[in-house]
Structure formats: C-alpha cells, structure tokens
TrEMBL record:
It holds the Pfam family C1_2. It comes from the Eukaryota. Residues 6-53, 62-111, 185-227, 291-345 form the DC1 domain. This is DC1 domain-containing protein. It comes from Liquidambar formosana. Residues 421-469 form a coiled coil. The keyword Repeat applies. The keyword Phosphoprotein does not apply. Keywords: Coiled coil, Repeat.
Length: 489
C-alpha cells in the first residue's frame, strides 16, 4: 500500500517490521518498534509510525484554546523548538503542532496526552499529570512547596501553574472521571473539558463557563460542573419529561405556557429546551409566609404595580437588584409594597412543591470510584454548598433505576406530540427546503458558468489561430503577401 504524505516528496510504502530499533520515526523521534509504519524506498532512513501518519492536520487543544493548532513537518523557527507543555527541546526536523499567531508549540506526545482531569482547589483550571518536565529549576517551581518540579507534576500549561503530585495529595485534589452519563444529555457521555471559549455557556443554566465543564463535542453540548448535581423532579402535565428547578437562569428564556419572556427562576427540561415560569406551574405555591416579611403573607406574581414607576428594581429581602416583574416571577405584598426574589424565600417554597424522582445514570463506581458522587466531582463540601443555595431539595436523595419500556417508535411519537418540538421541526423543514432551493440554484449557476467557460475557451483558441496565421503572413518572404497581411491587420 502506497500513500502520499505532506512531509516527504516521495510516496511512502506500508511496512510491518517485527523489530527495528535502528531507525527513529521522523515525526516523533521515537524508535520504530514492532508494528506498522510507512517508509520511503529511496531514503530508507525516512520512516513514520502509522499513528504519526494518521495525525490530524488541525486540532483544537485545551492547552491553547484561543486558536487551532496546525501540524507542521518541521520547526517554524531557524533552529528547533521548545514544547510549551513539557518544556522539552525538540529537533528542527520533527513534527510540531504550531500556532503562528502566538508562537505556541506542542510536540506530538503532549498533543496526544489525555486531557486535563485533575481538579486542584488552589487553581481555577484543571491540571494534567506529567511524568516529567524538561525545564531549568527556576522555570518550574511547585506552588505548594516552592521546590523545583521535574517528575510527576500536575501542571496547567496555559498559566504555567505547577504542583508536585505528592504536594497535591495533601490538598483537596480530585481526579475527575473520564466520562459521565447525565440525564440532561442521555444520548452521549460527557467528558471533562477546560479552558473554554469565551462565549461558551452551560446548556442547562446558560451561565458563561469560566473554568471547566463537561462536554459532548459531537452534539456541542456543555454542562457546567455546578449543574452536574441537578436532576429533573417536577411533574408538569404539559410536557412528557420531568422538569428541573433552576434558581437562576442566566439568560432570558421563552415560556411555552404563556408565550412570554422570562428571567431568573425557571422550571426547565434541558433536553427539549422547554421552559416554564414559576407562576405558570399549577403546583407552585401561590401564597407563603416568610420570616423576611412576617406581618403579611406574600403572593406569587409577575406583575408588580410599582415597577411601572421606576427604572430600577430591587428585592426587599436581600436588597439586591432584580429584573422587572414581567420578566421575573416574584413574591409580593401589595399592602406593604414588599417584593422578594423567589430564591430569597425558597426555604418556604420547596416543602410545598410536589416533586417526583426520575432515574439518574451516574458512572459506575467500579469504573470511576467515588468520583461519581457530587462530592467526588466538585470537591469536599460541595453538597453542603448546593444545599445552602436551595437546589438540593430539588435533587432526589436516592437514584431509582427503572427500565425504559417504550420502543423507539413510541418515543418518537411522544416527541412529535410536543408543541415545541413540532414547531422546531416545522422551522427545520422550512430551512431544509430553503437549503435545497439554494443548492439547486447554485448547481444551475455552476452549469451556466461551465458553458460560458467552454465558450470562452473556444473563442480563445480561435483567436490564437488567427494570431498564428497573421504571424506567418508577416514573416513571409513575398512582399505582396506581407503587405496584404498588414493591410488586413
């Protein structure tokens, strides 16, 4: 089998060496051991591992999230290059993943490392475990003990943050699972990702991701680590899935019940993007009594008369700014003009709210250990923090395993009945029709362009023939013919 590769001018032939430590791979500079490789028949020392031949030409890597990295067959500098991850000096003629805008370089080994999955309480980003760091003593110091780092180092490449693994073991250092299966995204597993794009938001609560998250690259689905502890528990007759209680949705949402915009507190089906105002949920408590306003009961509303008289809106319970009531449901006392966020009185709301349990599929303990728990994923004490925010009451204390008995056809029929899904499918069908029409128009224009090109080529050939004939007349030895050609010209 022969292939053409961008790194060499000759074609390369597939070979299966039993053992060949005499030569090194041109790409990674590691010995050609047992296994398939590609070699040049004219220059026998040029050999590439089959895995190095199959490296992607362009990658998006968490060590350098700002730009794509391009695979080069040699250093872009006059001499070799230094890998920005492991600090190793590499040869001039050695493959490198390079960012030209930032002069950022990764060798093949570091570009293929397992993505960072260590969470350390002293740093905002995830860390990667490196077996060895090739750096001078002062360039790589442990942030915990201030001693030089060389072997078994937890490292954040972007920030040059380093800590000995032995020092990290004494701190709150949690190894995240390689994958989790979450009910918000049941079709594909989610993997931990770090250093996100600036515009990346959590698909559950819409918060802008500032540190690490769990991602499905295939579906472009992102789940912030704060939302991994949430689960749907609220029954609503107008939707076929249970809804999840979010104490704050960080973007305006469209309520499918009253067909109006909302902000803040929301009941949401993440999978279907189904959103509901609190006041649109029949089982949500309409009247409560809370210690922040003990004199009178508070009534749930999305219309506070005082909002029409001012441009600034505040919660009288926490004295913080709030959204206008037509966008955010609030509890209100008309007699005292007292307004409170729902989350400020949540301790009285949750006990009155009817919830149901639904299956939550977390990673198996045998596969991921105790990392599948909320504390394992977010760190010790995370469960208490969630409880203080009033979220954990909406999370089942136990997971109940149930079998999915509905077949695929029944599931698809159930999805079709949902009005939001039907509306989205209609819009999708319209976009597909417009796309097909544009494609047909493009094909017609392409055909027309082809015909014009052929006509242009015919005219060009005819012009060349006339010019050739004219040139022959000009160089003719007979003056009469030359004069005739010149007069015709």
């Amino acid at each position: 089998m022969e292939i053409a590769h961008f790194s060499h001018q000759h074609r390369l032939i597939l070979r299966d060496d039993k053992k060949n430590d005499e030569y090194k791979c041109y790409a990674c500079q590691l010995p050609i051991s047992s296994g398939p490789s590609y070699g040049c028949t004219q220059y026998k020392e040029f050999i590439l591992h089959k895995s190095c031949v199959e490296l992607p030409k362009r990658i998006e890597h968490p060590y350098h999230p700002q730009h794509f990295l391009i695979l080069l067959d040699k250093s872009p500098y006059l001499k070799g290059y230094g890998c920005d991850a492991c600090r190793k000096r590499c040869f001039k003629f050695q493959f490198v993943y390079h960012c030209d805008a930032c002069d950022f370089d990764l060798d093949i080994g570091c570009a293929s490392l397992v993505l960072p999955i260590m969470r350390y309480e002293g740093h905002e980003h995830l860390l990667t475990l490196f077996d060895k760091i090739h750096a001078v003593a002062d360039e790589c110091l442990c942030k915990s003990c201030s001693e030089p780092c060389s072997a078994l180092v937890l490292r954040c490449v972007e920030c040059n943050f380093n800590v000995h693994k032995s020092c990290a073991d004494d701190k709150s250092c949690v190894e995240l699972p390689k994958q989790i299966q979450h009910i918000f995204h049941p079709h594909q597993p989610l993997t931990p990702r770090d250093h996100p794009r600036k515009d990346l938001r959590c698909n559950a609560c819409a918060v802008v991701i500032k540190n690490f998250s769990f991602r499905c690259e295939e579906c472009d689905f992102t789940l912030g680590h704060e939302c991994t502890s949430l689960a749907p528990t609220i029954k609503y007759e107008g939707h076929h899935h249970l809804l999840t209680l979010f104490h704050e949705f960080h973007f305006r949402f469209w309520c499918v019940s009253c067909e109006a915009w909302g902000h803040g507190f929301v009941f949401r089906c993440v999978e279907c993007r189904f959103n509901l105002h609190p006041h649109c949920l029949p089982s949500f408590p309409r009247t409560i009594q809370h210690k922040c306003h003990e004199t009178c009961p508070l009534t749930l509303t999305n219309s506070v008369p005082e909002d029409a008289d001012t441009d600034e809106y505040y919660c009288d319970a926490c004295e913080k700014q709030r959204e206008e009531s037509r966008y955010e449901s609030v509890y209100y006392c008309a007699d005292c003009s007292f307004v409170a966020h729902i989350q400020c009185v949540i301790s009285e709301v949750l006990p009155l709210l009817h919830t149901e349990q639904e299956k939550i599929v977390w990673p198996k303990e045998a596969e991921f250990g105790d990392s599948s728990t909320v504390e394992g994923l977010l760190g010790a004490g995370a469960g208490d923090e969630v409880l203080e925010k009033g979220i954990s009451a909406a999370v089942p204390s136990e997971t109940v395993e149930v079998e999915v008995t509905a077949g695929r056809e029944e599931f698809e029929a159930e999805i079709t009945e949902d009005p939001v899904i039907a509306k989205l499918e209609g819009e999708n069908a319209k976009l597909r029709a417009e796309n097909e029409a544009s494609t047909a128009k493009l094909e017609a224009l392409t055909a027309k362009l082809g015909a014009l090109t052929e006509k242009l080529e015919a005219l060009t050939a005819k012009l060349e023939a006339l010019e050739s004939e004219h040139a022959q007349c000009v160089v003719s030895k007979r003056p009469s013919e030359r004069d005739k050609c010149l007069s015709e010209a």
